[in-house]
Structure formats: structure tokens, C-alpha cells
Amino acid sequence: MNTPGTIDSPLTYDPKKQAPMKPSASEPEGSATPDVTTTGATDSRQNRTREMQLIPEALARAHMRDRLQDAERESRALRLATARRMQRRAERASLRARRALAMAVMQ
Questions:
Q1: If you ran DSSP here, which 8-state letter would residue 17 be given?
Q2: Could you please report the per-residue DSSP string of 53-106?
Q3: Which residue, 13, 12, 34, is CA-closest to 23?
Q4: Which helix (H) or strand (E) holds 52?
Q5: Handedness of CA 37, 40, 44, 50 (dihedral sign)
Q6: Whose CA is closest to 32, among 43, 24, 20, 41?
Q7: How do residues 42-54 score in pLDDT, each as one tens digit?
Q8: Quick check: 17 pLDDT over 80?
């Protein structure tokens, strides 16, 4: 099934040695670009390869950014919980001081 020269098994993997792409006869006029040169195919293949090589790097960057944002959110939530706990503690201390002052004034 894999004859040499097919899409699955090209004769060569070097873009410069591959034949330029030609529009097929079955396609209507104007559906494909009229002149596809080897240099254009080479550039697009090299760009596509470079982009595909950078995909895991971009995914890793996005994953790290998400983890950093999660950590910052968690840190903010922790600071908020600590601040609320300290505020309640201060309010209780203030209430105790007012009671102590009231008791001292009453005697």
C-alpha cells in the first residue's frame, strides 16, 4: 500500500528536492493558487515545522502562567482569610477592653 512517492512515504523528506505543487485537473479554475514555487513551499514547510516545534514550548508557558495565576489567587485568598481572622481577634480584644473599662468605672 505504501508505494514510494506517496504522501505516506515520499521519495525524499528534503523540501528542496521535492517536486513543486501543481494544481490538479479535477479542481476548478481559480480554486488553487496558479503558481506554487518550490521556494514558497520550502518557506511554508520550514515555518510550519518551526511553529510545530514551538507548540510544546507555548503550551508549557501557558501552563506555567495558569499555575502562577492559581498560586497568586490562592495567596490572595490566604492573606484575606488571615486579615479577617486578625480583624475578628482585634474586635474581640477591643470588646474585652471596653468591658474591663466599664467594670472599672462601675466599681
A1: G
A2: HHHHHHHHHHHHHHHHHHHHHHHHHHHHHHHHHHHHHHHHHHHHHHHHHHHHHH
A3: 34
A4: helix 38-106
A5: positive
A6: 24
A7: 666 666 677 788 8
A8: no
